Amino acid sequence: MSELTAYELEREANIVRNRALLEELDLKDAVTQLGIPLKPKPATRTRAKPIQPAKTVKRAREVVEAPRRQSARLKKEVVDPNETAAQKKQREEEQKKRRQIEEQERLEAEEKARLAKRPRHQELDLTTLGEKLEEPELSSLRSSLQAVTNVPLPKRTADADAFVFDEDRKDEDEVKELREKLQKLRVVSRAKVTVDRVYSAAYHPDATKDLVFFGDKHGQIGIWDARAPVDEVEDEDGDISADHREGGKHWRLQCHWPASSTSSISSLKFDPVDAHSLFTTSYDGTIRRFSFVSGISQEIFSSEYLITSIDLPVGGHEMWISDDSGGLTHLDLREPKDKACWYGLSTAKIGTVSINPTSPHFLLTASNSRELKLGPFKEGKGVVRGIFQHGKSVSSAYWDPRGRSIVSTSYDDVIRQTDGFTVWDLDVAKYSSSPAFPSFTPFRGMKHNCQTGKWVTILRAVWNPNPDVFPHFTIGNMNHTVDIYSCKGHLIARLKDSRITATQAVTCSPPSVVERCATGNASGLVCVLWAPPDVE
To answer: Which residue, 102, 204, 478, 533, has most beta carbons within 10 Å?
Structure first.
């Protein structure tokens, strides 16, 4: 190709200058008409959209406002300078009556506002609980709850000697089989189930549904049918891709009131007899039972202490309650709540209480006093059989479905200044008549970062309640993964997804399906269902 002449080079330079000038003047059409080629803009990198909830049109609600105060200048009346003494007296009497009425209205409005902020102790129906739900949404929720009440779903436990082998090879075979199943789990559904940060979660045992319940920071329960058909609703920009659309259907019920951090739902438990009721505990010191059959939420217990957790034995007739004052309360659900008995076990908050499923008289507690305690309670008397001193506060401790293994999480700064969880393997049946356990030391401690800080819900290692599989537990990770470990401390799976950019602080698993796990973000805005890809 021949070289350009000086004239052609100057012409090219003029074209470039003219094009730049016209673009600065926003005259792109003129650029096109002159035949000057437009310089293509570089492709901008777009960030992935967050989960987009389906938009619904809410009906207008009547808002009753309290009477507003007015300044004296605005309320000042024009007085007739020629009014008589009788007219003046009448005018002053009318002003006095009007001020009395306004003051009475103001006091009534303030009292109504105060009552609205107080905890609700009365029975609450589904319409009151779901005050922000429209009638079609309430009908859909009733149908979903009724669908799981057709068949009783009692809590199942494993035999104390289940999955106890003499040979290590058999343990390894069980772990291998579990890995093959759980390493396939992927994110198949996401949704903004609660408004605020998730504090607790429970997976309903019905195997035909993935029905998960989440309790949030402000006393609200989010009910998520994770694989229900999605209503197709377009947003303002048009269609939303499947990666950014909410999965399943969810409903929000305000069970504990007021909607503030004083009503945080600390734990959720299903009725172990039929799973047709949900027990909720709150920082406001109350425990409520929400019936799926009647749609009524009823208060069954109230305390002056902040309630941290509950547990129920398989029989379902009693309940053990832990609180922030270092005590345990025994409540017989067949008796009035004022018959409950309180026992002081610690000088600091007890974060969790766990009942041994095969030996219900053995209780396990985790406390801020750095102690994990185990002991039987019989006929109103308790004896501590085992104590393990952690380096720092023990945030949780639970029995596995066999009542044989214990997993605890704590703020220990032992290994490289990280937290960890600890695993015990005990044969409680052998120690039932012993005054004290011969040894109460864990057989394994694992490095795990549990330093959640102020804005992330405390990480807890939670056992999978399925008694038919090798015991294993799930725990969130500050690196935005969900970790699954066996009862022997083997890492089974580490679930991760590029779309998950927040700590999965709260985890739960169903008691009837192995390949499932539900988690809640530390932010509380996104809840995730992990399952094999073929169920999406």
So the answer is: 204
The answer to whether position 384 is within a domain reads yes
Closest alpha carbon to 403 in 359, 436, 442: 359
List pLDDT tens digits, range 296-311. Answer: 999 999 999 999 999 9
pLDDT digits (tens, 9 = 90+) for 421-442: 788 888 776 666 666 676 777 8
Residues 21 and 136 in one domain: no
462: left (phi over 0), alpha (psi -120 to 50) or beta: beta
Q: Both ends of the chain: CA-CA distance in Å?
A: 59
What is the identity of the amino acid at 423?
V
Percent helix, percent strand, percent coil in the chain, to nearest 5? 20, 30, 50
User: Are 23 and 139 members of one domain?
Assistant: no
Q: Does a structural domain hold residue 368?
A: yes
Residue 345 within a domain: yes
Torsion angle of C-alpha atoms 403, 406, 409, 412, degrees rounded to 10 = 150
Nearest residue to 280 via CA among 262, 258, 297: 297
In a domain, 63, yes or no: no
Q: How many domains does the chain have?
A: 2
Cα angle, residue 398 at apex, residues 325 and 476 outer, rounded to 5°: 100
Report pTM: 0.80
Q: Which helix (H) or strand (E) holds 365?
A: strand 362-367
Q: Are residues 404 and 302 in the same domain?
A: yes
Domain containing residue 300: 126-535
